[in-house]
UniProtKB/TrEMBL annotation:
The lineage of its organism: Bacteria, Bacillati, Actinomycetota, Actinomycetes, Kitasatosporales. This is ABC transporter permease/substrate binding protein. It is found in: Cell membrane; Membrane. Keywords: Cell membrane, Membrane, Transmembrane, Transmembrane helix, Transport. It is a multi-pass membrane protein. It comes from Streptomyces pseudovenezuelae. SUPFAM superfamilies: MetI-like (SSF161098), Periplasmic binding protein-like II (SSF53850). Gene3D superfamilies: Dipeptide-binding Protein, Domain 3, Glycine betaine-binding periplasmic protein, domain 2, MetI-like. Pfam families: BPD_transp_1 (PF00528), OpuAC (PF04069). InterPro entries: ABC_Gly_betaine_transp_sub-bd (IPR007210), MetI-like (IPR000515), MetI-like_sf (IPR035906).
Amino acid sequence: MPRIPLGDWVNDTVDWLLDHVSWLFDFLKTVFTGTYDGIDAVLQAPQPLLLAGIFAVIAFWLRGTLAGVLTFAGFAFIDSLELWEDAMTTLSLVLVATIIALVIAVPVGIWAARSHRVSGLVRPVLDFMQTLPAMIYLIPAILFFGTGASAGIVATLIFALAPGVRMTELGIRQVDKELVEAAEAFGTTPRDTLLRVQLPLALPTVMAGVNQVIMLGLSMAAIAGMVGTGGLGGDVNEAIGQLNVGLGSEAGVAIVILAIYLDRMTSALGTQVSPLGRRAAAKARASQGGLKIWSYRPRPQFAVIGVVVLALVAGGMGIFGNSSGEATAVSGGKDVGQGKKISIGYVPWDDGVASTFLWKEILEERGYQVDAKQFDAGPLYTSLASGNADFMTGAWLPTTHEQYWKKYGKQLDDLGAWYDKTSLELSVPSYMKDVDSLADLKGKASRFGGNITGIESSAGEMALLKSKVLKAYGLDKEYKVVDSSTPAMLAELKRAYAQKDPIVVTLWSPHWAYNDYDLKKLKDPKGAWGSGDGIHTVARKGFAGENPVVGQWLKDFKLDEKQLTSLEAEINKAGKGKQQDAVRTWLKQHPGLVDKMAPVKDSGTPAEAKQPVDVAWFPWDEDIAVTYLWKNVLERRGYRLNLKQMDVGPVYTGLASGDLDLNFDAWLPYAQKNYWDQSKDSLADLGTWYEPTSLEVAVPSYVKGVKSYEDLKGKASLFDGKIIGIEPGTGEMNLLKNKVLPGYGLDKEYEVVDGSTPAMLAELKRAYAKKQPVAVVLWSPHWAYSQYDLTKLKDDKKFFGEGNTIRTIANEKFPGEYPQLTKWIKGFHMSEDELGTLESEINKYGQGHEEQAVTAWLKEHPEMVGRMTPS
């Protein structure tokens, strides 16, 4: 049977509409966007709790005291999740879509109720609209209305339109025919019959339709977020893209709260506006008898007074129309943008997120107002081509995004590659010994379950893999490429790698997965992947000409691999919603980079402090404390410290090679002796700042009969044969495994469990709470000894060594490059009380707030700055 070219007919129709009816779409877009902006401005203007109070008063009027209290609690909870702005954006979109849907649905429903012919025509159309997958509506919405709020509104209202029409028709048809005939018998005109008889009696059913329109609109929130509408839908899509269960749960709960509120309010409003509903409600209240405080409802005039009072309070506080709070503080002479708006689109890949939020921060520092919106690749190119976004920094060209460039390249400007060169590949774990190239996959599909784990289906790499690479090696009939997402692919890789299962995944370089896993890039002797891409900045046509300064900055933009990967790591460490905070932190570690990327004038710094000091630190309490203390103190003196968390071995290697400058936590001469001996000729010892220390294994004091390592002999079953360790590769762990346990004859009896310091402390806390035996790797000084009653096991044979001190070590060139800083460090000492109180302050403030904790501690120790860095 010949193929019916339905898709071609649809495409031709769309092209014709775009060519001949674009004026109508532009007009509708202006109406939709203007309505949305107006409602969103009203909802975003008041302080969140004031608006929550207004919502609560409405609930109090419509449903009673309990509903008012729960409403305020629910919206206050959304505010506490820091999702208020997103929730109001979603609410604005739903309200606009609902209003427009009802403007269309109610008249069509009335028409269908009064004409069987119209009803017969409308019904299959409504069936089609409700059964067509909701995401399909995004395609014409983007093409006709661009990306952003207008596309989301159109897709939402089309999807939500059907129940409004159906319920309006149903409500009118259900009105008692005898009442209609009686009205007509008394000479009532058809118009008055509709307005005075049918519609009032049909209102409960019509309002049920309104309720369903709103609910369907909210169900479209996540889908609409895919085209840049933002709001809670954007959060849901971000959570899906990152497999972030926490963010997804928060956004989902916020949508549920909105849905419950709107559902309850619209159903109650339907009761209030309907004569039959009011009569039924009055009978119900009369039957209850007496005043019920939780179901008490004020008179409408009192509810209106409450809303007005809250609105006046908001206005009196100066929060309506207050834009100063959002203004970016720009130093004199650097306000290049003067508030001009710029829109950046990005695909949620690591390099795209990092470079986008880097430029967002830089441009805002230069006085621009920047809006960063997340898209899939296809909608992003469409948005740039239509002028709805200004530029993107994540275009992989000429290969990965080739299909989009062919379609939209004439409407775009390539501002050049800022990172070169990348590669696309399939990768397998290194334990897959007989698979080294794409050709080696032939005949081995059963080992991989016939699957290649892919990423987003819209990615250019996926299209290239399916259409060219597999066919080039004859693998297209043997393997199925599983569409998913980058986080899902990485999660599957992590799972398979942990179990040593065969897996082949879609990857690219640069990518941090090659650092975390031992992987092989499958060779491509036929060159099917093509030459490596560059990561380009692509702008809408004419953007650089309209913004010559920004255009030149973007053309000159470059990042090397070290800069890009460290920025990506900082963003990943910061977590959800904190991308720009992470960029600010990273820029503090790279002083002068803003002036280099967006030059205005030379900022000028002292000679020794011009280059940042690269400081490596371990996630140990004393190292966290002393590192952030030095960071605070030296920044007051004009220095900038670039902090990098690392393991012990890489720190010594980095210092010896000159890639790092300092580490404040060298436990010498014993704990880290093996590392020191390997690299000591390339290192500088800047002196001891804390002594004495000790390394040990400790057990809770309720474990009787275990006072020394000798006492552990024969008691492995008591501790389940395990000693809970910290980070593998640390000097203490190496000493324990290679010297202490063999020295006491415990190496065959006990297993040292590699982990991390937080994991060890969590296991200690859990066991201590249940009074269970546990042996953990510890050291002194440590705050655990003040929190728990522990026994340090005696080391009679001195295998852990004695007399460790905590020293500062540097690369051998450091003293010559930083003579003043070297002098300060050599004169630095801390007492046990000072170090203990600083560690305690940092623990009290919590992870991520180390700088605030150090600032608070220094207020209590004002002499420390002068003591550490004397003039």
